[in-house]
UniProtKB/TrEMBL annotation:
Domain of life: Bacteria
Name listed for the protein in its UniProt record: Cell division protein ZapA
InterPro entries: Bac_CellDiv_Activator, Cell_div_ZapA-like, Cell_div_ZapA-like_sf
Keywords of this entry: Cell cycle, Cell division, Coiled coil
Gene3D superfamilies recorded: 6.10.250.790
Organism: Hydrogenoanaerobacterium saccharovorans
A UniProt-annotated Pfam family: ZapA
Coiled-coil stretches noted in the UniProt entry, renumbered to this chain: 68-116
GO terms of biological process kind: cell division
Transmembrane regions: none
Length: 123
């Protein structure tokens, strides 16, 4: 059975232009993103009279692409660190198990040689 994905149609406005976005995301999230982009575009245009709407949109895209790449690199770095930590934990667990086995082997050997459990040698 095919799962049906709910699609919302959300109207946003960026620098006076209206857009209808079809998305599975919630309406408030899309509206929030639209407001954020609108504010950035307006700020770029207000800061320099020679920046066109198209220029401001391209600059916004570049800013978002840069932020996205940085977050991807950060996530990759965290995944690598987690993998390293898991490998270290696995090695520590193996060493612990080996130490426990060696401890048990030495206890049995001590018992065979006449030692008692309290560490005293019988005379």
């Amino acid at each position: 059975m095919e799962e049906k994905i709910m699609v919302n149609k959300v109207r946003i406005e960026i620098a006076g232009s209206r857009y209808v976005i079809a998305t599975p995301e919630g309406e408030e999230r899309v509206l929030s993103l639209g407001r954020e982009i609108d504010a950035q575009v307006r700020q770029l245009m207000d800061g320099n009279d020679r920046v066109s709407l198209n220029d401001a949109l391209v600059l916004c895209c570049l800013n978002y692409a840069n932020a996205y790449k940085k977050s991807e690199e950060s996530a990759d770095n965290m995944r690598t660190q987690l993998t390293d930590y898991l490998e270290d934990a696995t090695l520590a667990r193996i060493e612990l198990d080996e130490t426990k086995r060696e401890n048990e082997r030495l206890k049995r050997r001590l018992e065979m040689l006449g030692g008692s459990e309290d560490g005293q040698t019988k005379l």
